[in-house]
């Protein structure tokens, strides 16, 4: 078994470790008053993608550029950002019940590494304008509220920290939205010359000032760069992209974890071990793939690093097509066959016929006719096209 993994190192300082601000997560942002016409336009855009949306509250994030919208869908809180042109830039579904929300392994590892003992409060799963999945996580750590943004792979995008002991103020809570390189201010674009642009986020504060978070690369080095409202460079972290060490080892039956053996015994009685492989990533077991034999069939099963069942591939019995010849009468003949016989065997008389069927679908026709004092077998394909004729002796 082979896996191709390219993971950004997780144990590094995030984009905003020094930023003492909070990020809105399911709370109404009221940075600016939104005029009725803009609010109606944004609401209409949301309604196109979420026809059952209710309690829509539209706010201005970036004047005449980006709006925020908080709403409910079947009682579930959502938030979105919408451009002035009516394009949805991002949407998030707020999952308040964290006990029923499964985070991907990369995010869990990042949180456990950097915020050991954290308390998970809220999770929002969403997507950007290109349909790329992203995660917004709210945790409590050392009496601080911290919101973290991750991409679909679990790579950290940004971190927002609320000062210790300060309660969140919904009216001051900023939101972020994504932008492409061409949408960044010209002086920031010029500072990125020589970099390979990856992504960028913009956060607008309650005073209208913006902070730009840019991720860019030079070679195999990833840079996290922060600019202020004037485009002045405030922070830059360099992180070398690392490819984890992957090793596939052959597995003996005696090395199978007991949890896997228990699963096999419960679901594949009298199974017999054939072979197995364990994938180790940076000395940590990533997954197991094993092949067992049951009743003469080879069955391939996959388990995660803790022995939890993932998937199974069982050979299916080959499907034998149903083949049969069925007798037919003259009226059952396709019109194309009748037309041919009328043209070539003028005055023909039907004696008998049959159709060859494969899974009840016609494949060929055989017709015995009388023509004058002779009899002929005439063959046709499934569409009624002439194939051959043979005189009956």
Automatic annotation (TrEMBL):
Signal peptide: 1-19
Keyword Signal: yes
UniProt keyword terms in alphabetical order: Signal
Gene3D superfamilies: 3.10.450.360, 3.40.1420.30
Keyword Signal: yes
Protein name: Beta-lactamase-inhibitor-like, PepSY-like
Organism, scientific name: Arcicella rosea
């Amino acid at each position: 078994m082979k896996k191709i993994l390219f993971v950004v190192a997780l144990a590094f300082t995030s984009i905003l470790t020094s930023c003492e601000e909070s990020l809105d997560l399911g709370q109404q942002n009221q940075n600016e008053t939104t005029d009725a016409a803009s609010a109606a336009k944004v609401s209409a855009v949301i309604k196109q993608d979420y026809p059952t949306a209710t309690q829509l509250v539209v706010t201005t994030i970036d004047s005449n550029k980006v709006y925020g919208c908080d709403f409910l869908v079947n009682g579930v809180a959502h938030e979105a950002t919408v451009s002035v042109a009516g394009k949805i830039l991002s949407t998030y579904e707020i999952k308040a019940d964290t006990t029923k929300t499964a985070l991907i392994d990369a995010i869990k590892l990042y949180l456990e590494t950097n915020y050991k003992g954290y308390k998970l409060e809220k999770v929002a799963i969403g997507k950007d304008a290109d349909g790329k999945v992203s995660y917004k996580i709210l945790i409590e750590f050392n009496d601080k509220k911290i919101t973290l943004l991750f991409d679909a792979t679990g790579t950290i995008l940004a971190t927002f920290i609320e000062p210790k002991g300060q309660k969140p103020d919904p009216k001051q809570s900023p939101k972020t939205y994504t932008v492409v390189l061409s949408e960044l201010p010209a002086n920031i674009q010029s500072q990125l010359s020589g970099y390979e642009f990856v992504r960028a986020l913009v956060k607008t504060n309650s005073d209208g000032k913006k902070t730009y978070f840019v991720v860019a690369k030079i070679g195999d080095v990833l840079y996290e760069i922060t600019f202020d409202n004037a485009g002045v460079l405030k922070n830059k972290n360099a992180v070398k992209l690392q490819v984890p060490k992957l090793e596939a080892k052959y597995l003996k039956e005696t090395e199978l974890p007991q949890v896997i053996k228990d699963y096999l015994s419960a679901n594949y009685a009298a199974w017999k071990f054939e072979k197995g492989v364990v994938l180790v990533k940076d000395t940590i077991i990533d997954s197991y793939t094993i092949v067992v034999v049951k009743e003469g069939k080879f069955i391939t099963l996959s388990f995660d690093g803790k022995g939890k069942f993932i998937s199974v591939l069982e050979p299916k019995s080959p499907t034998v097509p149903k083949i049969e010849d069925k007798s037919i009468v003259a009226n059952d003949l396709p019109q194309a066959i009748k037309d041919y016989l009328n043209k070539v065997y003028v005055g023909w008389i039907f004696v008998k016929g049959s159709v060859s069927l494969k899974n009840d679908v016609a494949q060929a026709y055989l017709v015995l006719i009388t023509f004058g004092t002779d009899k002929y077998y005439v063959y046709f394909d499934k569409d009624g096209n002439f194939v051959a004729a043979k005189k009956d002796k």
